[in-house]
Known about the structure:
- By secondary structure, this protein is mainly α.
- The protein has helices at 7-37, 41-52, 54-57, 59-68, 71-95, 114-145, 151-178, 184-200, 228-240, 245-263, 266-272, 278-306, 308-326, 332-360, 363-398, 401-423, 429-438.
- It has one domain: Growth Hormone, Chain: A (Up-down Bundle).
- Helices cover 78% and strands 0% of the residues.
- Helix 6 packs antiparallel against helix 15 (363-398).
- The longest helix has 36 residues, at 363-398.
Amino acid sequence: MARSLGPGYRKLFTAHVVSNLGDGVGLVAYAWLASAVTRNPLLVALVLVAQRIPWLVFTLPAGVITDRGDRRVLMVRMDALRFVIALGLGIGVLASPGELPAPDELEAVVGTDVVLYTLILVSTLLMGMAEVLRDNCAQTLMPSVVEPAQLERANARLGSAELVANALAGPPLGALMLGLSFALPVFFDAASFGVSALVASLIPGVFRAGPGAQGSDGVEIAGRATAWHVELRDGVRWLWGHSLLRPMAITLGLLNGSAMIGGATLVLFSQEVLGTSSTEFALLGMGGALGGVVGGYATPRIVARVGPGACLALTLGASGVASVLTGFVSSWGLAFGFWFVEWFFGALWNTITVSLRQRLIPDALLGRVNSVYRFFAWGMMPIGAAVGGLVVLVVTRVGDRETGLRATWWVAGGIQLVLLVLASRSLTTAKIHSAEAAANV
């Protein structure tokens, strides 16, 4: 019988699930809200850029903050801040002087509601900034809550539960709320952040960076006062000098960036090419969620059978093929199936790599190195989202709009298949086991 993961983990787990349920509701609500105030593909993509750009510009400072403070306290504060911002956005939607169309009558939208669009854009940007610090703190908190040998099980369970909340339960609930009001799912999202902050505040203990790691000057980091740029340099040097985590971070950055090329205008692709309603759009996202949940629970057995390196290669290959095929379909049911496969293997990647980082990186450096890793991994997403909007505009000039929306998936899939070829030699099972042996884990 498996050992209990402990009360601290259960509270962390609950906070994540509640927060992600709100995020799942927002996944449908914010995209549909943006498409209700503008039909410009670049402006719609810009909302996603605003959500992801903090991972490019704020991730590195967030790592320093994470290692300087109590990670639980910072996590609670960021959830509380997101509660306030989302609450303000909901009030702004209610108070908007313009009349929004019904959620399933968006084709009638002409022009852009500049005031409401700006509010959406700014709110999304600020919540993204808070999310960067919050998620970095939460991920660095995990090794202090569970034992090293339990990390795969803890991360797999957490990842699967997040997917259930974020992409299985949240989107249909958001679609249901959209049928009543554009503001209702935004208020629900705010409430989820408030509850998450409350639950996380109940995790017992103090969670500051531990002792032991040394900086670039050979002096122990924990407890010393240093300039920000010195602490950032410690994190950058540690990751860049690691023969396994460096190529892993770069590969994931390009993978995530390419995924955003198609994802940036997903709401327009779903509405205009696949012909989905808001409810069908929510159901479409469930294909990926189901794949991720199944993949999360299957990860330990698959890794034991084929090895972690093969799992990472399978993720790149499956992502490329699924993206290319998505660009050819006109049925949301087929897209549902392709995303199931893509997210199934994506869950393997996440579970393997997150657990590996938590074991290999020294605790005193975990916040900074993790933030540098996520700078590569997530920082490419706003760039990919911007590229996605531009692809639609450029292709539409020489072809029709439908071809432009489909082209984003072909470009994304091509990049992912190239990554499969380039990364296969760097991310092997042998190199993963060698890195673990060198770190004595």
